[in-house]
Specification:
It is a single chain. Helix 5 packs across helix 7 (119-127). Strand 4 and strand 5 form a beta hairpin. This protein has a 5-stranded mixed β-sheet. The chain has 214 residues and is α/β, with parallel strands linked by helices. It has one domain: Beta-carbonic Anhydrase, Chain A, CATH 3.40.1050.10. The chain contains 11 helices and 5 strands. The structure holds cobalt (II) ion. The site of cobalt (II) ion has 7 residues, from helix 5.
């Protein structure tokens, strides 16, 4: 069963050791990634490949529609380990255009259990109901919600006790808002980058102003 995947794995590990015979040995004892990636589980948005980073360079958490929920022990544990133990310097919340989870949340699609998870995206939708409804084109409206969702999730990251405590003790960690284009493979910075507690509100206001009013 799944022989082709084992074959792929053998070829991949051989390629890696051809390039650097000590590659896996070096990774064995430590990982020192500088970045935490919080992205969508979508198979078309593979974190390491998009930013061309090697194993050991990117700590990754992915879920449907890249949502950061205040009580999600899974995401919070990844965040805490990344910040407190690995001491990552950057946290990248990366959404993507054409996100199926975002579209489902926008259209009230009934897909099963996941509808409950996507309620968090519907909270974002509700918050920006008027500007979203003002967009006539379905794809553009969905893509706007993809952008707004990233900004809201950046706020959620920043509001966690993990990030608040890190900033309070002077640890340098920046939270970024990115979005990825399935159509061209390009990442775009949505302009909200937060590096300290007092900067959150201003960064949020200016990001929303740019996304909603420009
Ligand atoms: Co998605």
């Amino acid at each position: 069963m799944l022989d082709h995947l084992f074959q792929n794995n053998i070829h991949w590990s051989e390629r890696m050791t051809d390039q650097d015979p000590a590659f896996f040995q070096k990774l064995l004892n430590q990982q020192t990634p500088e970045y935490l990636w919080i992205g969508c589980a979508d198979s078309r948005v593979p974190a390491n490949e998009i930013v061309d980073l090697m194993p050991g360079e990117l700590f990754v958490h992915r879920n449907v529609a890249n949502v950061v929920v205040h009580t999600d022990l899974n995401c919070l544990s990844v965040l805490q380990y990344a910040v407190d133990v690995l001491k990552v310097k950057h946290i990248i919340v990366c959404g993507h255009y054409g996100c199926g989870g975002i579209r489902a949340a926008l259209n009230n699609d009934r897909l099963g259990l996941i509808d409950n998870w996507l309620r968090h995206v519907q909270d974002v939708r509700k918050k920006y109901e008027a500007p979203l409804l003002a967009i006539a084109d379905d794809t553009h409206r969905s893509d706007k919600l993809c952008e707004l969702n990233v900004v809201e999730q950046v706020v959620n990251v920043c509001e966690t006790t993990i990030i608040q405590d890190a900033w309070a003790r002077g640890q340098q960690v920046a939270v970024h808002s990115w979005i990825y284009g399935l159509n061209n493979g390009r990442v775009q910075d949505l302009g909200m980058c937060v590096t300290e507690r007092d900067a959150l509100l201003g960064a949020y206001d200016s990001a929303i102003r740019k996304l909603v009013h420009d």
